[in-house]
Amino acid sequence: MKINTDRFSLTFDEYLTETNVLFYLNDAVTQLLEHKEECTQFGVVRYFAEYFTSVKNGNHVLFREFSYIKVTPHNRESFIHTFWKCFRQIGKNGDLLAMSEYSSLLQLLCPDFPTEMVQNAARIVLVDDAADSLMSFSDFIYSFQIQFYYEEFVESVSVIYQDLLSGKNPNTVIVPTSTSVEQLSSAANEEPDAQEGVDSSVFCECIEGLCERFKHKFPSTVAIKEILESSQQVSFYGFLMALAKHEGVNQDIGALPNKSDLLIDPEMDQELERL
Amino acid sequence: MAEKRRAGVAIMSDEQLLSQAGVSALLRGALLRLLECRPEDPVGFLAEHFAHLSSEAEDGASERQSVSRALWHLSLAHHSHRSAFNNNVRVAYELLTQGVPRRLGVGGVRGRLYSEMLRCLCSEGGLSGSTAAPLLRRIQSHDYESVPFELFRQGVLTCAVFADYIRKSQCLYAAVASAPDRPAERTLCQAVLSTLREALETADGADVARYLEASAKISPAKVAQAMAEVQPRAQRHDGLTMDAQEFEDAAAALFIARVRTVS
């Protein structure tokens, strides 16, 4: 939750917005009104203390609605972390689950978590739409992380990819003529084809251009360059999979440990040993 | 609010409920503190802010807790942010005077608590016990005495400024030492120390914070000038050096000499 800009030069409004403080305060008051019994002079102080402590510790997203958990990067990171803590045992058992099962698990923690997003995450692992294909916990969670934490980025990159596939360079200015308008509408209906690919360096340039003006979170350009410099051609899902597997990107988000530590759960191990 | 009426008894509206519990005053206070201090971690700051408020309201705080809470308040703003710092000093003072029975109109912080407070401030400011000791001897009070607000404020400010001053001196020493693990040449150190003394002497008046303004006058140019004057004489390379601790003690002594002893 640290902010890097010179926070003393921001106006009050800017500081409060950038840190999402007003959002959390508003939510705290709304939650308080849903627990009216806490509304005593002493109760409210303790209530706010507990609320902000739980936000700080990342416990605040449990059982909250989807619109809440997606609204700040901290909330998204906390949710991914919580999902991992709750279900890493599945990984230990080596179980492979289908997309619908992961969706149910997510909905245990967030009742209105959209299945569509889980589908998108599954596509990163499975590429084609086989709804019954099984995925390991490890494969799923890292892909889910990219899809959920960088949702807006993934969407924008998808548009760039489609443009490049249909032969358009998004960086050029298009003067609408009748033929190019047709091209636009047909490109919009295409799903990015995983088997094809685009030129990595052009793709990289376009993504860097996007990042320069992008208002949402995006993976470090260092990581993006690293990935795209490693091959001449790249597919959309190939790119996302590489992001999912990239250790640096994972650490920047900060929600999950390294892949080798993913399944370590010392408390559960102790419990199991007692049995 | 028709749906809120049940069995003929009016249930309060949300706004009434919140205002009765004092929520807007509470949040206003929290936001003001937040905007004053602009911490790097606003959520963590708010968590601690409310937690402290809540436990203050809860128990008759033990002394240890009072001191640590007072210290926390003092850590929130640097002394150069004068109004924020003064507010924090006021809050800390109130915390430490709680539960002290007022004897015939004499209020204030108990001497023992005040001395403890200053000791902790110095150590939290990175000062070693030996560096802080001479300063503390001058400004701390007897255990049985009662410390009024203005004296409390001066003492706290002195410690904060002293900690900054020593840090600056350490940087100056590092600047004149040719290598991090070798002591600096004595003549160079003495040149720097006399520049420090000059700067301190220009600070007139009782306000301790002027000392820091004075030390800001020790611009790199001034130090370089002093060193340039020294350099030809140092060609002798007589190998006399001054180590970091001696330099720090000497710098500390310059500062402490100008602090009035509290009698």
UniProtKB/TrEMBL annotation, chain A:
Which PANTHER family does this UniProt record tie to the protein? CENTRIOLAR SATELLITE-ASSOCIATED TUBULIN POLYGLUTAMYLASE COMPLEX REGULATOR 1 (PTHR34252:SF1), UPF0705 PROTEIN C11ORF49 (PTHR34252)
Q: Key word Disulfide bond present in the record?
A: no
Name of this chain's protein: Centriolar satellite-associated tubulin polyglutamylase complex regulator 1
Q: Which InterPro entries match?
A: CSTPP1
**Keyword annotations from UniProtKB, A to Z:** Cytoplasm, Cytoskeleton, Microtubule, Phosphoprotein
Q: Does the keyword Phosphoprotein apply?
A: yes
Q: Identify the GO cellular component terms for this protein.
A: centriolar satellite; microtubule
Cellular compartment(s): Cytoplasm, Cytoskeleton, Microtubule organizing center, Centrosome, Centriolar satellite
Q: What is the lineage of its organism?
A: Eukaryota, Metazoa, Chordata, Craniata, Vertebrata
CDD domains, A to Z: DD_C11orf49
- What job does the chain carry out? Regulator of the tubulin polyglutamylase complex (TPGC) that controls cytoskeletal organization, nuclear shape, and cilium disassembly by balancing microtubule and actin assembly. Regulates the assembly and stability of the TPGC and thereby modulates polyglutamylation of the microtubule, which antagonizes MAP4 binding.
| Superkingdom of the source species | Eukaryota
State the family named in the UniProt similarity comment for this chain: Belongs to the CSTPP1 family.
Species per Swiss-Prot/TrEMBL record: Cyprinus carpio carpio
TrEMBL record, chain B:
Q: Which GO terms describe its molecular function?
A: microtubule binding
InterPro entries cross-referenced by the UniProt entry: TPGS1, TPGS1_C
The record places domain Tubulin polyglutamylase complex subunit 1-like C-terminal at 63-260
Q: Which Pfam families match?
A: TPGS1_C
Its recorded name reads Tubulin polyglutamylase complex subunit 1
